[in-house]
Amino acid sequence: MTDDSGVVYDLGYKPYEGQRLGRSGAIKAMIKDGLRRSFGIRRKARKKIYPWLLAGIAFLPAIAFVAFAFLWGSFSPDSESPFGGHAQYISLVGTVIILFVASAAPNLLIPDREDGVLAVYSSRPMTVWDYILGRVGALFAVAATFFIVPNLVMYVGLAALDKAGFASALVNNLDDLVKVLVTMFAYVVGYGAPALLIATYAKRVGPAVGVYLATIFISPAFAEIFKVIDLPGGRFGTLVSLQQHPEVIRNWAFGESQGDIPMTSVGFEPWVSAVFIAAVGALTMYLMARRYRREL
Amino acid sequence: MTTKPALAANPTIEVNDVSKWFGQKVAVSAVSCSFGPGLTGLLGPNGAGKTTLLRMLTGLTLPSQGEVLIEGARPRSNVDRYRDIGFVPEESALYDALSAREYLTYAATLSRVKDPRAAADRALETVDLTGDANRRVGGFSKGMRQRTKVAAALVHDPKILVLDEPLNGTDPVQRAHLIHLLGELAANGKTVIVSSHVLQEVERMTARVIAIVDGKLAAAGDIAAIRRAMSHIPYRVLVQCDKPREFAAALLGNTAITSVSLEEDRIHLETTDLLALGRVVARYASDLDVRLATFAPEDESLESVFRYLVDGR
Amino acid sequence: MRAFLAIIRVTIRQTLRLRRAIGLVILSGAATAMYLLIILASRNSTGSLAGQRQDAIDAAVGLSASVFMNILVPVVTLIIATSVLGDERRDNTMSFLVLRPIRRFNIGAAKVVAAFLEAFTVTGIGAASLGVLVAIKIHSFAWLVPLVVGAAIATAAYAAIFVPLGYLLKRATLIGLTYVFIWENGIVAAIPGLATLSPWRIGLSATAALAPAEFTEHIPTDFALGSLNPGAGGALAKAVIMGIAAAALVASILRRRDLAGGSS
Fold it and tell me: Which residues of A touch chain C, with CB atoms under 8 Å apart?
């Protein structure tokens, strides 16, 4: 005769009863994952070579410069140092950022599609925008680090050498830091957004890197042509120079001459470059959302 | 005639003391065996080294030590040797842009078949893909992709067929069809080596297996013989009869039996001497006028043998 | 021969998809687009006809040397050539290819030829379109064939370098771009004696040899040619030797190394 009662035995399974972090926790986790991927942390040594080499190129000159200044006495950075001031250092860092985002943006987005991992993300309580913010946030954080750290080293290091005193120098030169931050946004968005846009639609990492670098390095040539030719509305063609819009913002922020930059040569004010960068950034976010809404 | 179970009679493929390591990890360690005409199952848990061994058999991977010989020569010594080898890898090895017919025609062309198109059509028919021949492989289901890979391995009518998990992703009907096909090929004198986790199917296909555990050769030969060779592990036998309680009580304490357990009408016996147990059960059944319904070994299946090999219980 | 041609055909089919082809053709046509802008702008020019002609030649040479040959040709070829074997490795189709009774050298050669044909379809369109525009502007088709030949030779040389690279390295595109932008356009530009190690300069030397003398007169010699003398035969020979060496390298890899694939 069968017994129709039942019992469930506790085999040791326990549901998770810890803290649930919600959407912000998911975004932070994605940013952390993105940082690891970009720098090759917890990955094979091979994956660390390229990003850390670029980090070295971005950070070491500033560290060496400040160390040099400490060892050989103080001097005015603007007139005597081999790097000039923050503005000149930024032009070195700008190239590093191009080379870094060229590789980092595709490696943040494309493997998730290639490996079929998007289904895992979509089964979690996170939205399309959480995913995008997580990935964009990681790229922004790393690129910003490349920018901020060497400039901060220079800012603090030179303040320590300043005859007016460390605290006074920090306060007096605070506007330099503000200019660095403003320029940072221009560079990171100006170079990062096109890389993300290309990576959103490319199928493989390699071609995405190639197309991005080719586009960035060829666009100034197009702008030069539009600068010299006399076509109706031709001056608007100078705006295609993706590489040079952040440079316009840098020169404006630090009061440097705009020189031969095509868009300023034809009469566009720096705010036009700021609007252009913001527009490219907004377009990138919109198109990413559209693409990933299909996938996630 | 060979006296070692790991060695086939009239071997087509010989594996002589082969080891393979990747950095610090030893994937295959001092394996010696051979494969001949007929079907041999290659078994082992995940990470045992089966795929590495199969890749060494085909020449895709070079042994770190030892040698693999196909009809007396190393696989990479002469490219013409590849006419005689068909390989079905575990991973997807398909050109998504091609249709099934194009893919197989390509395979036949590369294998220097005289009429590649006709060979492709024959291979499609063999794996029952004629209806989908003009569809792009990229749009195939997992089972269809698997059949396409098998067809590509058969299109040039090779003497040796090496298949790594060929039943993955196939539904029961496709599986039965493939098993039947492999059996036919083996019966026609081809050397067929199948690695699989689906033990019941391997049991249906062949009685000869080679088992690899942790990169080492753990067992080889006929499944039942392997079980008999595990004399340190008692046999489990199921007995069902009309008087289970009385019969179980009577068997208890007999020296031929190491353990008796009763589960409703099922008596589970353990013994180290199967023959002696058979005599004892027959005698007691006669003495007690018990009608036996079942007397069957419970652990002579490949699954049981596999479990004993892997974790010793 | 049948197998050789089949490998070429399937490789091109598998790697050159429509969207990618269109994107690469657009990229390759960037120099042509620039030249078109220059032509459109110069329609209203008030200078002398001879002066306008010189300007047109100057622009054509400048674009060929500093945009088309040194950026577009290598980048397009890099993207295509690294995928020819790289995709086989990534998609796990190497076992399908190598377990066939085909000499390893023939496999290597077929892959190099496939990469060249595929890449040259794109760069050839770029070179031909630029050549046609130049011809329209200066009323002479004498430039068309030299530009196309130079692009072909440079493409072949790049294909020879990037096909094995695509198999050997996972980050082949990044390494290739470093080679193009830092080695060729940085170091070799600074040291003209190294020009013979720069595929686009080899291609340009063929263009310079075949084009009318005014091409060479306008070329920025140190940057564009370095120590190379204009010579089509020499350039072609170098490209062919590089192609054969690449096929031999691929064959050696296939013969000696473990071929990429899964494991359990």
Answer: 50, 102-103, 203-207, 209-211, 213-215, 217-218, 221-222, 225-226, 228-231, 234, 237
CB atoms within 10 A of CB B183: 16
Q: Which residue of B has its CA nearest to C263?
A: B51
Domain that holds residue A189: 22-216
Asked if residue C47 is part of any domain, the answer here is: yes
Nearest one of B89, B95, B103 to B51, comparing CA atoms: B89
The reply to whether A256 falls in a domain is: no
* B-chain residue closest to C12, CA distance: B97
Mean pLDDT of C12-30: 85
Question: Using CB atoms, which residue from A210, A228, A234 is nearest to C177?
Answer: A210
Contacting chains of B (3 CB pairs or more, <8 Å) are: C
> Which ipTM did the prediction report?
0.86
Provide the residue ranges of all domains of chain B, joining segments of one domain with +.
13-226, 230-311
Tell whether A143 is covered by a domain: yes
Distance from CA of C45 to the nearest CA of A (A): 9
pTM above 0.80, yes or no: yes
Which of B84, B37, B39 minimizes the C-alpha distance to B210? B39
Q: Is residue C264 part of a domain?
A: no
Contacts of B87 in chain C (CB under 8 A): 95, 99
Question: Domain B230-311, what fold?
Answer: Alpha-Beta Plaits (3.30.70)
C263 lies in some domain:
no
List average pLDDT for each run of 10 residues in chain A, which is 296 residues long: 59 76 86 90 84 87 81 55 71 86 93 88 85 93 89 85 82 88 93 95 89 90 83 85 94 86 90 95 95 84
Chains A and C touch (3+ CB pairs under 8 A): yes
d(CA C125, CA C133): 12
User: What total number of domains does chain A contain?
Assistant: 1
The fold for domain B13-226 equals Rossmann fold (3.40.50)
Which of A96, A198, A211 to mutate to probe the C interface, most C CBs <10 Å?
A211
Domain ranges, residue C18: 2-256
Structural domain count, chain C: 1
Nearest to C110 by CA among C202, C253, C2: C2
What would the two tokens of residue B93 be? 């090895």
Instruction: Look up residue C170 and give its two tokens.
Output: 């996972």
> Per residue in B40-91, pLDDT tens?
999 888 888 999 999 999 999 999 999 999 988 888 888 888 999 999 999 8
Rounded-to-integer distance, Cα A279 and Cα C56, Å: 35
C38 in reach of chain A (CB within 8 A): yes
